[in-house]
Amino acid sequence: MRIILVQYRPAIRLYKWAVTLDKLGFDVTIGFSTDLIQGLDFSKFKVINIRNRYDFSEYDLYISFNTNTKLSHTNTTKVIQAVGDLKGIKEANSTERKSLQNSYRNVFISEKQKAFAIKKYNINPDKCFVLENGIVDELKGKLKPKFYDGFVNLVYEGTITDITTNHRNILQQLILLSQNKAVRIHIYPSQVSTLETYKYLDNIIIHDTVSPYELISELSQYDAGLILISSDTISDMALPNKLTDYLAAGIPVLSNPNKTLFAFNKKKNCISFINNFANIKKNINFVLKNKGKNFNEYCFSYDENSDKIKDIITT
Questions:
Q1: 73: pLDDT confidence band, cut at 50, 70 and 90?
Q2: Quick one: DSSP state of residue 257?
Q3: Contact 11/35 with Cβ under 8 angstroms?
């Protein structure tokens, strides 16, 4: 089977699907229209620029990663929508609606997201599946020893910005967190981050961006990972990639309240939810209580569940 995986700027989730499908023996091509994320190795795949291209009939399957496409209602190639978030729900006449309604299959990252989309967009439930964000063996790395400097060392990885209207602006949460003198907060920004304002915060250490192949190893030396996401309809359905990275690194997670993360944590107890950023004593106690525990058993593995991906695209 010939499969093309498409994203405007192919990112980490597409990469994980690509390497998993390659291991399963599928012929995988990567399609992009802007550029490729630096640091990810796509050299084993055929990579093509698909700007202004709409005929993909040479492929058996077109998998679109959070990229609304006319293909799902104008082309004979089977289209799977791999949904990261539901950006189109705020628009009255969304191309997202058509893409999800007319696709061959839709793959969501959480049950809550799937249920919402089925109801909101009137999608056939039989073609909707859930595959949570996970890890692949290529990204695991070797775990490092912990810091022992008298502080509780928290780490945040991902894109951050100074733009006040952007949901990746976590400045206010960090200002409050930095008031907790028992902690030090380490930030590993992505390459597209803007950081100037963050450099002047107390108890905040900004590190250089690291390769995705080194990230899990780097995260493993800290006491807990931070998830700081906005509280809205879209974010409440999110299961962030950074959750996967923290658990793969063996560390617990501190997060602001989120309904999908509540559901994920129900039987795992690997997340402590922050109700007051200026006073996280309860959350610090959770971290200290679990020091020495390895949380990577709660990380979903694409390699161990590759048959689930195969079933989604072939059955």
A1: very low
A2: -
A3: no
User: What are the tens digits of pLDDT across the range 185-212?
Assistant: 999 988 666 677 777 777 888 899 899 9
SS3 annotation, 68-128: CCCHHHHCCCEEEEECCCCHHHHCCCCHHHHHHHHCCEEEECCHHHHHHHHHHHCCCHHHE
DSSP 156: E
Tell me if domain 2-134+302-314 and domain 138-298 are identical in fold. yes
Q: Copy the structure tokens of residue 259.
A: 């309904």
Q: Is the pLDDT of residue 67 over 70?
A: no
**Class for the domain spanning 138-298:** alpha beta
Every domain of the chain and the residues it spans: 2-134+302-314, 138-298
Using the Cα atoms of residue 295, residue 228, residue 35 and residue 114 in order, give the sign of their dihedral: positive
Task: Give the tens place of pLDDT for each residue, 167-182.
Answer: 677 788 888 888 888 9
Residues with Cβ within 8 Å of residue 308, at least 6 apart in sequence: 131
User: Domain 2-134+302-314's class?
Assistant: alpha beta
Do residues 258 and 235 touch, judged by C-beta distance below 8 A?
yes
